[in-house]
Task: structure prediction
Amino acid sequence: MTTPYDALGGAQAVRTLVDRFYTLMDEWPETDALRQLHPQDLSGAQQSLFDFLSGWLGGPALYTEKNGHPRLRMRHMPYAIGLAERDQWMMCMRQALTEQVSDSVLRTALIQAFEQMASHMVNVCAATPLSSSTAELQP
Result:
């Protein structure tokens, strides 16, 4: 059975997806709230996302080998992630997938899976000021 990792094109395709995601996040003014959660140098975050997605998509479990179980929600709890940040993350990922994944069935399945994951990271209600967090994501 072909994994999403293989269907995307393996490590190089996952790297391209991650790089495009972070380029969009870094360049789009409408993703500023999300960008502010990250350090100026995005290379560590890019590597972490690449490592995570590699295993999550059915390829080598790079993140787990380096860091243990991902525990995504726990690792994101120090950062105020609201609906705006979730939506901005999804906007970047949806665009990166649209540009890279020509198979519409695979693209739709990945978007749905990413939407569930992104929603699970939300840890503040809409009434909580999102600017109150000064923490930055670390690799």
Remarks:
- The domain at 9-128 is CATH 1.10.490.10 (Globin-like).
